[in-house]
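Justification of computing resources. Each target in the renewal requires a structure prediction run like the one illustrated here; the chain below, 245 residues long, is used simply to show the kind of job we budget for.
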Amino acid sequence: MDGKALLRPVRADLLHEGKAKRVFSTDQPDLYIQEFKDSATAFDGTKKGTIAGKGSVNCRVSAKLFTLLEKWRVKTHFVDLLSDTEMIILPVKIIPVEVVVRNIAAGSLVKRYGFVEGRVLTPSIFELYLKNDELHDPLMNDDHVLAMGLADAGELAYLRRQAATVNDALCEFFGTIGISLVDFKLEFGRRPDNTIILADEISVDTCRLWDKQTGRKLDKDRFRFDLGDVEGAYQEILERTGAAK
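Resulting structure tokens:
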């Protein structure tokens, strides 16, 4: 993979700590370490808790999915696993525009627009959100992105094409293991040469995943809505994706 080092990097300074991850610089300038935490939040951080083993599950599932996407020619920041909760990544400057892809109506789509939960969306719906906790990550459109100078028209078109490719790849993969990919969030970042690559994570935290046969929710909604067996759902995704191997 591009950027993979011969020597494993050594953690240095904490650069950023979010609700679910920490990012560290290393002794190699073009490699960072991303550490996944067990802490969990929902509803703009108003609900907080801990999900035992979540950091390990999300790290390994993300590594599995990033590796899959590389085979679909989607460039990502993932380099290698360092431990069960740490991955080596390429440094990027995150574009503060979250791309959400919806294949089945759920969550805020049902609340905002009155869709019936479980309705299959044809075509899939692509949404943009401003990545800003203080403003509660508001929904935005292309004009907002352009007016704020967050990306140009060509870059927006590229993000949509990449999101569509990711959706095709993940729907195919999850379909083979009996899981419906309801919706998911993507974040992208710019490399020093302004190349845009997929970043952050693709995990149980950032995807809605339902069992195809039973409709059972196997994602962070179990934590959000107190559905019980949260740890079990995360572990089930780890096993079914093959990321535990």
